[in-house]
Amino acid sequence: MNNVDPFAWLAVTLQRIANGWPNSELDALMPWNHAA
After folding, report:
1. Domain Transposase IS66 C-terminal, which positions (predicted)?
2. Angle at 14 between CA 12 and CA 19, to 5 degrees
């Protein structure tokens, strides 16, 4: 996925969702927006 570690991305994404990530910011959770 374009130099994105899928396990790191998934861990960060699930943590953000569990901590109450706002629905209006879901695009920021996509893998292509994840800092490599």
Report:
1. 1-32
2. 95
Q: What is the distance between the alpha carbons of residues 4 and 36, in angstroms, rounded to a whole number?
A: 5
pLDDT at 33: 86
Which strand (E) or helix (H) includes residue 9?
helix 6-18
CA-based torsion, 5, 8, 11, 17: positive or negative:
negative
Read off the tokens for 31.
Answer: 């893998």
**pLDDT for 15-32, tens place per residue?**
999 999 999 999 999 988
Contacting residues for 3 by C-beta, under 8 A, at least 6 apart: 36
